[in-house]
Amino acid sequence: MPVSLPEAAAELLRRLRFEKPLVHHVTNLVTVNDVAAATLATGALPVMAIAPEEVEEVAGQASCLVLNLGTPTRDRLAAMAAAGRQASGRGVPVVLDPVGAGTSRMRSEAARRLLRELRVTVVRANPAEMAHLAGRPAVLRGVESVAAGGPPEEAAAAVARAYGVVAAVTGSRDWVTDSSRFVAVDNGHPMLKQVVGSGCMATAVVACFVAVGDDPLVAAAAGLAYFGYAAELASLEARGPGTFCAALLDRLAQVQPGDLRAGVRAQEVQADAV
Questions:
Q1: Strands 22-26 and 174-177: what pairing?
Q2: Do 222 and 255 form a contact (C-beta atoms < 8 A)?
Q3: What is the DSSP string of 52-115?
Q4: Contact call for residues 229 and 179 (beta carbons, < 8 A)
Q5: Of the candidates 224, 122, 134, the residue with the CA atom closest to the CA atom of residue 165
Q6: DSSP for 166-191, written as a single string
Q7: Which DSSP symbol is given to 194?
Q8: In angstroms, rounded to a whole number, what is the distance separating the alpha carbons of residues 175 and 267?
Q9: Where are the domains of the chain?
């Protein structure tokens, strides 16, 4: 990797705070406010257009498009496909969050269809979702990951290879890979598991970094390191999930490039060591 990850993360944060990229989210009903707030706190501008009548126009103006399968409906899936085609045609990066892939046939088929038909740049998923997309055993309870067959980095590599994407799987250790390069990110905190929408917010942050990055793998790893570092800081003042969530938004807004450079705990791992 040509640059150090701490340096790259700091530079990407500086760039996105300066450029304030527009990030278009076609997201779910449960976490829409959290996603918008995390996007804004990071330094980008969120737009949450979901109507099929306008998504193509909005996606064409964006610097990154996020497709989130958290609450799929026929209209919402149509909106995702339309926005994704527009973004793909204009070279706008697309970040897919296949929430609950493996929970229902509808979600699983939708995730695979979007991966086949669109030029998806990054997939951000939990271990069970990633394992399911890789065709491996996985157990979800609702949209929560319960068990996944095999190491998550191997499932991520399989998805990256099959669909030509950067695959980012988040857990106690995050892994980001394009099937030939692997980055392990150790920033984060267990309290994230107690917050509804933490995965959706992580995806939003990744999209902010991808919007201004030249290398999607480096950008995705930097975004996860930044999100995890903000969570570490938030945990120091939290009394429970509610105060943690509020502190997380505060810390996302307060972390500066120099802070991030010092706080990143991520490293490239050689493929033969995975």
A1: unpaired
A2: no
A3: TTTHHHHHHH-SEEEEE-SS--HHHHHHHHHHHHHHHHHT--EEEE-TTBTTBHHHHHHHHHHH
A4: no
A5: 122
A6: EEEE-SSSEEEESSS-EEEE----GG
A7: G
A8: 10
A9: 5-263
Strands 144-148 and 166-169: unpaired
Tokens of 236: 């120091």
Longest Cα–Cα distance of the chain, Å, equals 48
Of 71, 152, 156, 142, residue with least CA distance to 102: 142
Bridge pairing between strands 174-177 and 166-169: antiparallel
Residue-averaged pLDDT of the chain: 92
Q: How long a stretch of residues is the chain?
A: 274
List, for residues 67-94, the tens digit of each pLDDT value: 999 999 999 999 999 999 999 999 999 9
Q: Does pTM top 0.70 for this prediction?
A: yes
> Can you name the CATH fold of 5-263?
UDP-N-acetylmuramoyl-L-alanine:D-glutamate ligase (3.40.1190)
Q: Which whole-number Å values give the CA distances from 47 to 7, 22, 66, 86, 197, in the listed order?
A: 29, 7, 10, 16, 17
CA separation for the pair 2, 198 (Å, rounded): 31
pLDDT of amino acid 143: 47
